[in-house]
Amino acid sequence: MKNMRVAMAVMHSPVGRIEHNLARMADWVNLAAQRRAQLICFPELNVTGYTTRAKICTAALSVPGEVSRRIGQLSTDLGITILAGLAEQGTRGKVYATHVVAIPDGRLAFYRKLHLSPPEHNHFTPGRQLPLFAVNDFRFGIQLCYDAHFPELSTRMALDGADAIFVPHASPRVTPREKFDSWMRHLPARAYDNGLYVLACNQTGGNGLGLEFAGLSLAIDPAGKLAASDLSGEEGLLMVTLQKAALQRVRNHRMRYFLPHRRPGLYRRRQVASQ
Q1: 138 lies in which domain range?
Q2: pLDDT digits (tens, 9 = 90+) for 25-57
Q3: Residue 46 located in a structural domain
Q4: Which of 8, 140, 149, 172 falls between 20 and 30 A from 164, CA-CA?
Q5: What CATH number should be reported for the domain holding residue 161?
Q6: Which residues, at least 6 apart from 96, have a Cβ–Cβ distance to it below 8 Å?
Q7: For the chain, how many structural domains are there in total?
């Protein structure tokens, strides 16, 4: 991959205020484009807002649909890839936590959250596909919040060729510092073990239904080290340049790039130790 300039957005997203959230999102996309970002990632469900209450069902949107079309047009107009979250209205009343990927050449794709937290099972349906996305020669995956606690997911994405994993969150409660400490327990491991970038961002402020979000964003490099962070708790953009050289340093190191030395045959079968 070539170097990729990325903006990680922290955004306030009240539930159901879709036009308001889209307008705020457009402001951040414009600012990211002015700062020469090639890709901007928004938090989980930033368009519809996040809740585990029944109101999420009435806020859900069709994909593709009018809102995803507008996001795609914004991507094309400004020449920037947009990763945006919404509750998706599926068939037979199903609702998915979905992240739309709008690419300037007109392509529109999406990722549906695979691992739901216990409260989300009340109204959401888990996805079943594990796609990777490509912008020129930059390949990336998406995991939504709770997804990142399942390390097999990151390994699968790395084996499929991902250079980075974006982890948009709608993770409520606690302070930005406490949320940061929580993320630093598992996100560096996903980057280090798989030799890729991991980037995360969260919603901030209240959702209008009793949840408060701690606004923060961060980037972990392929060596598992913190590359950048913003713990202000405020809306904003964290600008990060993903560097080809950083990936190559890890992937060309015979001791620090672990994936080629996996033994998947051992992991697929149950073994009983001999006595």
Answers
A1: 4-255
A2: 999 999 999 999 999 999 999 999 999 999 999
A3: yes
A4: 172
A5: 3.60.110.10
A6: 87, 88, 90, 112, 113, 124, 125, 126, 127
A7: 1
